[in-house]
Design brief:
Layout: E1 20-21, H1 24-29, H2 33-45, E2 48-49, H3 50-56, H4 61-73, E3 77-79, E4 90-93, E5 98-99, H5 108-132, H6 138-141, H7 155-173
Parallel strand pairs: 1-5
Antiparallel strand pairs: 2-4, 3-4
Helix pairs in contact: 2-4, 2-5, 3-4
């Protein structure tokens, strides 16, 4: 399942062109919010050790190492052999992002992965609320946003809306870093505001 490795220039992260389409095996590996959070951090910030990631995510170092090995077995990260020593192994992401089409794999594996994505996104927001918002520089705070909107659309219209939003993000993902730029997390969630209505109780005999 591992795609050919494209080495980015020294000091740069993988390009959005190197996104991986998740197959069933990768979906199963990522159906755990901790693994997804670790993978996202490696993709955003570059190589890191299990020890540093454990501190950052308040994990036992053994648990962090276990999840990193699972990600490596799934072809999503690899050991960065140019760094580290016997005590500290460094890990790096193999792809800039993941692609998953619920229309093609919406079974149990796809739904478990999507649940992990939602939980990881919620944890990212929690960390932003406690670790970023109180201390971020005024110039960044002024242009940040934590918003949600409710729109009324059909499934076909939601597919179009999603495609339009992702197309805008794709343009920005391909731009190289510039002076004054910094990694910014942009979360996109779109889902029905309510689940299916509960069935009416059967009339008493």
């Amino acid at each position: 399942m591992t795609q050919p490795r494209k080495e980015p220039p020294e000091g740069q992260l993988p390009s959005a062109r190197d996104d991986i389409a998740l197959d069933t095996a990768a979906l199963r590996v990522l159906a755990h919010p901790v693994r997804l959070a670790l993978l996202n951090e490696l993709r955003r910030q570059g190589p890191a050790t299990a020890r540093r990631l454990a501190r950052q995510f308040d994990l036992d170092s053994g648990a962090a190492s276990y999840h990193l090995r699972k990600l490596a077995e799934g072809g999503l990260i690899e050991e960065d052999t140019g760094r580290g020593n016997r005590r500290d192994r460094w890990w790096r992401a193999l792809h800039a992002g993941s692609r998953h089409d619920p229309a093609e794999s919406g079974g149990p594996d796809g739904r478990a992965y999507t649940r992990a994505v939602a939980l990881a996104a919620a944890e990212t927001l929690r960390r932003a609320a406690t670790q970023i918002v109180p201390v971020v520089a005024d110039e960044w705070f002024a242009v940040s946003t934590f918003s949600d909107f409710t729109v009324h659309v059909t499934p076909d219209e939601l597919a179009v809306l999603k495609g339009e939003v992702l197309a805008v993000l794709a343009r920005y993902r391909e731009r190289p870093p510039t002076d004054g730029s910094a990694p910014v997390v942009v979360q996109v969630q779109a889902f029905p505001a309510e689940g299916p209505a509960a069935p009416e109780p059967a009339p008493a005999p």
